[in-house]
Amino acid sequence: MSGTRIAVDVDGRQVVLSNLDKVLYPAVGFTKAQVLDYYTRIAPVLLPHLAGRALTRKRYPDGVQGQVFFEKNAPRGTPEWVRTERLPSPGSSKQRETIDYVVVDDLATLVWTANLASLELHTHMWRVDRDAPDLVVFDLDPGPPATIVECCRVACLLRPLLEADGLVPLAKTSGSKGLQLYARADGLGSSEQTSAYAKGLAQRLEKAEPDLVVHRMTKALRDGKVLVDWSQNSAAKTTVSVYSLRARDRPTVSAPVTWDEVEACASPDDLVFDSDDVLARVARSGDLFAPLLG
User: Fold this and answer.
1) Which of 52, 59, 174, 258 has its Cβ near the most Cβ atoms within 10 Å?
2) What SS3 state is found at 64?
3) pLDDT tier at 2, thresholds 50, 70, 90
4) CA distances from 200 to 133, 158, 194 (A)
5) What is the residue-wise DSSP string for 173-193?
6) Is the dihedral of CA 264, 269, 275, 277 positive or negative?
7) CA 128, CA 126: separation in Å to the nearest integer?
């Protein structure tokens, strides 16, 4: 089937699929067809979190061990039915004033995106129809030898601070090595104000737990500690979407987890979930991140 192109109907849209037997995760033989299958099956819970948000794709045309490139602009040949939004591009590395972002509102667009070997899906904390973020995120990134176990300790310290401010934090794995906390940001203001709020909490945690927490990106400060990365709340930055695959040896997923799971985490393996795991978890428990949809 390598090199072949197959036209399929997805909710009334024609999507051309290609190279379905190409292995994108060589360590486990996970193919492009399996990537498409995962994204199609997870779509009912994934799409509400992508809808209305400008999407940045990390594409791996030769698999996770090959070259990767970030893609923000809609690529040449984008079907006319794919929604795009022309938006300002603050901080663009290519000095663009605007970018024509893809917005994934429906299954056909998601399948088309996945067929481009867009393994990782990254979004902003704001929707294209709003002038302020609707989400706030804290990206907890462990500096070796710290692991996600230490990230869970930090999450449990951060949770009551957020709740004291009237926010309801939810946790998900990064799908890589860390943990991320999200909450609705209604009322926090602009991206600058939301970033300042997140930075303030990160600084409070560092002051209270200097042997465990750091809020600055400087690598020399991070050994054995957890970086509470507040900067992802910038209007120019993106964070991996919930339910997105990650480009690891295995097709791991950025998966929502319960607070019971966070509190009980004793080993890094406790919070590693691949595509099959996540499909089973959703079938059993639904979308744990649904409260973020408002």
Assistant:
1) 174
2) coil
3) low
4) 17, 12, 10
5) E-SSS-EEEEEE-TTS-SHHH
6) negative
7) 7
Q: Residue 11, SS3? A: coil
> Domain extents for the chain?
5-123, 135-285
Residue 117 class from Cβ within 10 Å (0-12 exposed, 13-18 middle, 19+ buried)?
buried
Give the C-alpha separation, 230 to 226, whole Å.
12
**DSSP annotation of 252:** B
On whether the CB atoms of residues 172 and 291 are closer than 8 A, the answer is: no
Strand positions, DSSP E, the chain: 5-10, 13-18, 23-25, 30-31, 54-59, 69-71, 84-88, 98-103, 118-123, 135-142, 170-173, 179-184, 213-214, 226-229, 239-240, 256-257
* CATH, range 135-285: 3.30.70.3300
Average pLDDT, the chain: 95
pTM above 0.90?
yes
Using CA atoms, how far residue 49 sits from 18, 125, 233, 278, in Å, is 26, 11, 16, 16
Taking the C-alpha atoms of residue 68 and residue 61, their distance in angstroms, rounded to an integer, is 7
For residues 9 and 3, give the distance between their C-alpha atoms in angstroms, rounded to a whole number.
Answer: 20
What is the CB-side half-sphere exposure of residue 209 using CA atoms within 13 A?
Answer: 20
The pLDDT, as a whole number, for residue 90 is 62
Question: Cα angle vertex 204, ends 200, 210, to 5°?
Answer: 135
Spatial separation of the C-alpha atoms in residues 216 and 218, rounded to whole Å: 6
Domain 5-123 is found in CATH 3.90.920.10: yes
